[in-house]
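Workshop exercise sheet. Pairs work together: one partner reads the sequence aloud, the other fills in the structure field after running the prediction. Swap roles for the next sheet.
Pair: D.N. / O.F.
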Amino acid sequence: MCLFKQEEIQTRLDERMEFIEPGAGPLRILFSPTSLNHYSIDHFSDIYSRVQNSDFDTVVIVESQPGTHEKKLPMPSHNSFQTRFGKVPVNTKLRNELCDEDDDFFIDDEAYSKDLSLYDQLLFLQNRLDEFTVLSLQITDESPAIVKELSAALEEILASRNALLVFCCDIHHLEPDTLSQIQNHFDQENRTELIRTLNSEDVSMNGAGSFLAGLLIAGKWRTSLTFNRGEHETGPVSGYAVMQYQPVSG
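Structure field:
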């Protein structure tokens, strides 16, 4: 475990802010690595430097925890999550709304553990947002039907809310050609081929279900999708989606 100090994380975030292009639309979705370590801290810093204070009052963190769990889309029953940097309250109202949405959403701790990517993401969010609530959601069944159900529910409930969606996924495991196919399917709004590509036997990555859910929502919201590459990597390591400005006519 890498115990980075809060000051070190803040310094890295400040350094990365200098590289953010001006004039981008409002941020809505992040695709973040699943694990914080000495290799990935720069990637975490790069992606979270795009989060500005007061931009969001709640953050939904989605990650894949495939296994033999009975509940397909569980959410921990905690009322708050504690990190080394302090306590973050859970958005219990949003959690209850999702439970009313469909039978596969449950408040259940079966897939919860202290090793969730949630805690690594919170370390950076706590350096970017003064006050916010969080909702942790695990995907224990990455079948297309479950992922589409999740994306449809989040897209509908969060469309008009001041919320940031974080999808934890190791997209650096994708081959460049595969990522290019995914980007093309996304740009062409070809949802069928997007799902087919990500469910191909050729795709092996941690957090594939989370990645697909984020892509489906990003497409539904008609966002502009960008994938970042690390300084020495040939493939993407993170990504983000921003709302596109609509031209004013008349």
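Discussion prompt: The radius of gyration is 17 Å. What would you look at next?
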